[in-house]
Design goal:
Length: 124
């Protein structure tokens, strides 16, 4: 990870929350704990590896907890900690702000790329 260049708490928070996936993962975990496969379904374009790395980063930051329950297959759930729950109003406010800005015409509507399944080299 990059070194902190200032004493600003925003910089440190953005090191954890920046990028495409962390805030989306928090958004999908805000209502209830979810299994890894549920988070993959919520975010179909994220790879298995990136989802794992992002969840570990959020866990190390004390925002998400990982609970493994025995059995086969292993049952693992992810949930927000108290610190993670404190971020939910901020994420909701950000979504409200963006919706209002888009409705007023201040920003163009988001353009979605169609989701395509990646093909393995063998299948091509």
């Amino acid at each position: 990870m990059l070194d902190v260049v200032s004493n600003c708490p925003i910089e440190e928070a953005m090191r954890v929350l920046s990028g495409r996936w962390p805030t989306l993962l928090l958004y999908y975990l805000k209502d209830r704990p979810k299994r890894f496969s549920e988070l993959r379904r919520d975010n179909p374009t994220i790879s298995h590896r990136i989802l794992t790395l992002e969840l570990r980063k959020l866990e190390q930051a004390g925002i998400v907890t990982r609970t493994a329950q025995g059995g086969f297959p292993l049952h693992v759930e992810y949930d927000l900690t108290a610190h993670g729950r404190a971020l939910v109003p901020l994420i909701d406010s950000l979504g409200t702000w963006w919706s209002a800005a888009r409705a007023s015409g201040a920003v163009p509507p988001a353009q979605r790329r169609p989701h395509t399944q990646s093909r393995s080299p063998v299948a091509q």
